[in-house]
Amino acid sequence: MKRIASATLAICLMSLSLIPVAASQTNDLTPAQAAIVATERAFAKLSVEQGVRASFITYFAEDGIGFGPQPYKVKETLSKLPAPATRSTFVLNWAPIFGGVASSGDLGWNTGPTLREDRSPDKKPSQHGMFFSVWKKQSDGNWRVVLDLGISTPSAVAPLDAPFQAARRTITKPGAASSQVDQHTASLLKAEQEFLSAAKSGSVQQAYSTRLTDETRIHRSDSMPIVGESVIRKWLERQNVSLSGEPIKVESASSGDLGYVYGSYEISGPKPENGYYARVWTRDAQNKWRIVIDVTTLISEK
Questions:
Q1: 61 lies in a domain?
Q2: What DSSP assignment string belongs to 237-268?
């Protein structure tokens, strides 16, 4: 869906073109997941037809957050800007190819390839990336984006018409009731803080390695996604760094089996840097929180 990486609040957010309707197995998805995928595609379609500003205002929640690179309220920020007099010659296209949803059907996420094309006579080279978005069902029943963070990639990760694949559905133990949403959020915050504490005081490799699944994804700008526990473990072996971070917002689904966190981070080591991160966590059958996707956006290298 989006991915705003410019410090100009991404308002020039590269426009995006309509994705071909993928041969996704939507008949195999839960109703909530199918709705998120369909809404993501409608979001992209509106961006093509009316531009990025109109589509983002339509499909972001009132408090939906993007990064430019600092976090900001997308709908509020764009609404204060005048509509452009002419359409941009740049078209930003995206398509959801992987994602998950809470068993309660009120929170979910998508990721997939983005393509930024220049449709002017100059035809500058296309740019590729991966978007990541968290969707929340609103009180009116509509799905809206509450968090959006994307990365650039050196080449295309997947074709825009690739079929959508849903993450495995978590089977939680009895007791994950919607009335316990505050407890679920507190549990998720505790898991996040324990992860950050382990990464800061001990080993980043160890902090991640006890919280991975074979579907976990690591997204870092200017790199291809790192996917799967075994691949991520090999990547972690090369991460000779110390990581610290501070959560800014934590939110759990009412069922307590899915949630997201975003915050600030700082890395010390051979190449120090700081920026913002976003993570989606899911609970396994033993009610242990596991990282599903981990995305960062760089502010600066020190």
A1: yes
A2: TT---EEEEEEEEEEE-TTSSEEEEEEEEEEE
Domain that holds residue 202: 178-301
What pLDDT sits at residue 285?
86
| 156 domain-assigned | yes
Q: Is residue 2 part of a domain?
A: no
Distance from C-alpha of 132 to C-alpha of 277, rounded to nearest angstrom: 12
Contact 295, 88 (CB under 8 A): no
Specify the 3-state DSSP secondary structure of 40.
Answer: helix
**Tally of CB atoms within 10 A around 165:** 14
- Indicate the range of 25-29, 104-108, 182-186, 243-247 predicted with least confidence: 25-29
Chain segment 146-155, per-residue pLDDT in tens: 999 999 999 9
N-terminal to C-terminal alpha carbon distance within the chain: 30
Task: Say what the pTM is.
Answer: 0.88
